[in-house]
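Assemble and predict.
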Amino acid sequence: MADQKVILSESEMPKQWYNIVADMPNPPSPPLHPGTGEPAGPDDLAPLFCMDLILQEVSQDPYIDIPDVVMDLYKMWRPSPLIRAKRFEEALGTPARIYYKYEGVSPAGSHKLNTAVPQAYYNKQAGVKRIATETGAGQWGSAVSMACSFFDLECTVYMVKVSYRQKPYRRVVMETFGATVHPSPTDLTNSGRGILAADPESPGSLGIAISEASEDAATHDDTKYALGSVLNHVLMHQTVIGEESLKQFELIGEYPDVVVGCCGGGSNFGGLAFPFLRENWKKGKDTSLLATEPASCPTLTRGHYAYDFGDTAMTSPLFMMYTLGHSFVPAGIHAGGLRYHGDSPILSQFVAEGYIEAEAYQQLGVFEAAEIFAKAEGIIPAPESAHAVKGVVEEAQKAKDEGKEKTILLGLSGHGLMDLSAYDDYHQGNLTDHELPQAEIERALAELLPVGA
Amino acid sequence: MADQKVILSESEMPKQWYNIVADMPNPPSPPLHPGTGEPAGPDDLAPLFCMDLILQEVSQDPYIDIPDVVMDLYKMWRPSPLIRAKRFEEALGTPARIYYKYEGVSPAGSHKLNTAVPQAYYNKQAGVKRIATETGAGQWGSAVSMACSFFDLECTVYMVKVSYRQKPYRRVVMETFGATVHPSPTDLTNSGRGILAADPESPGSLGIAISEASEDAATHDDTKYALGSVLNHVLMHQTVIGEESLKQFELIGEYPDVVVGCCGGGSNFGGLAFPFLRENWKKGKDTSLLATEPASCPTLTRGHYAYDFGDTAMTSPLFMMYTLGHSFVPAGIHAGGLRYHGDSPILSQFVAEGYIEAEAYQQLGVFEAAEIFAKAEGIIPAPESAHAVKGVVEEAQKAKDEGKEKTILLGLSGHGLMDLSAYDDYHQGNLTDHELPQAEIERALAELLPVGA
């Protein structure tokens, strides 16, 4: 009987991260300095990031070696399993063969540790004493807290207030690893105080929390900032997911026709999909890549492709990306990790150029799909990952309608065991679907700067 | 570089459970019928359990085949990894080599699924429609809910009230898999109503919840009862843990000098330790086996070795075991899975005969040890498992004092991601140590029956 799990040995783990910038058909649009409108260089990023990470951010090299210390820590949970979801297939009655790459085996419960560990490592090497960061759902904050603990770095986390209230267990995880956690917006930063002055009841947003954490880092000499998504070096660290998946499919002599992942800032999706995109370009493969997002924060499907700030306080460089406007505050749905107004610039470019497709889903259907998956496979998906599960349900239905035996790869970025209040709300009937009004989309146009495309 | 994780392939999984009853140096003391005082036979158990499980309970065969369907479901998470805890060793500054066998990879987050799945399977085979069970910490209830969902069985869980309040996420997990969860004591059963009449504010106990669940099963034709520990067949299902560990140590050419596991009803400890005990007896090995428990519920270390009821309502057979008395209600500490008044009869016998050692620990030291482990290895242990971590800290210190390079196997039965309120209380200073007064121990003597040893 064939094994259900495709397991690599530690010696088969990829030893390099993949930098898709080197292989892009069209050059990426550069980030712009917010004051001058000129392309931002390494020096502009220096107040926030250590030089090793900045060099990775702007690197043109296709592969970058993973340091030994990072490899050793990766081995705590990597290589992650690729699992045939036979019972899920049966539950869906689909002829499709569904595999899921499961990043919930990380002790932080999600893929985020894949980049938190190298970010902590490079900062430690650079003599940094403290990391300031933001977190939405709490997945990123948990991962950074853990990584800082491994390298004996202090850690301050600005947690989006609505998530701070909904997910007390996430706070406890971060505190267990020694981090200090603030519900954002706070009165500890200028950007936080500004938001609170305008709206004392602000539920917070990733954009606001990013402003707070980056201001904290920029105003303290011993502190750097860590971002959990969007930037090139972050997506690059996550490519271990896709590279392992490629090796695992090779082991079993299969190859996915469709790759589905959820997309907030793009780190999970990029990490999973970019190695497959390279194979499409370089080896003539023809895998469809589907990014899924919530209908309440439909960046890729309804956002504007334009230059915009990465944060709410307009202090970051300008990025060419799909955006709902930097002042956008999404409804307090539970998939906190998907509540970002923008998206990774390179991933946005691939969507604009047609290399990646995107779909947005309402949350009731997302939780329904997640529970079918849970009952079949035992794993309760994180609300973010549940958006990918919903995408797979749709693809499986298509395969059924077409009578096709296609192979689907589901990127299951994390488990939902620390996000169970969302499932409770779903059971209690407290969740509703929410379509973002068109006026909200148009409102964003007014705040986008007349530069770029 | 040697791999940090010792991984077996699915084809190397043990295909049989080990039944230590076949190898016991002295025959086990039989359970007694509560009415007659005569040994209880299969018929006495028939109202509660299906016949396949009863036959396993009384079996004298050393090995019992694991059904294919169960093997297939085991492969969702088994074989579980054996992991070298190098960073934990460094944190402790010990010359000991510490390995942990990690059962938290199960989708239920603990070892409990190892027996929940076969119990659900045999009940389904027997035409049972519904399972009634109890849960303390929620680990067992989560596992049964999941297993029932896999086999399309209804599931009713009586959850100890203090845990129901402390651990809402556990309830959500069970509900996600379709179970109905009641805080126990309830007014749905005679035993629950009796307890509530005497103490409307009763926090509940495992003994009470067992009475309720078994009454529910005994009074409904389509319903059977499932027990998560104590009984022989339950411990036997858990031996996959120890059998895999033996194979994993063989792969790396090592062998443990000490095996440490936490012990409530004994299923985790027995499942881990019994295969090693067999090797001690049959292959001249000399591994020490250490069962750890909370000082607030010190069954093995301070209980009476006598015949007692397994439940509070005095409806179960009488078991020869270490007991604090069937009416014992332990303090509401967080390690809910270790709050049982009794213990597995065969495991109790091995403690009485000197084959297994036991230690009790106060909870502050337990959480301190757990946080050292978490910061080193990334995994936040379940409060129950944390008692084993504390035992390993003590053993590692001994190794340091003696300058010995001994090998320690830690049974890490589950993660604590659904038990974080306990860690929060620990951080907030809300936990205190609690030594059970001697009067409480002596009180139990009065309710023990004058039969047996």
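Chain A has a mean pLDDT of 94.
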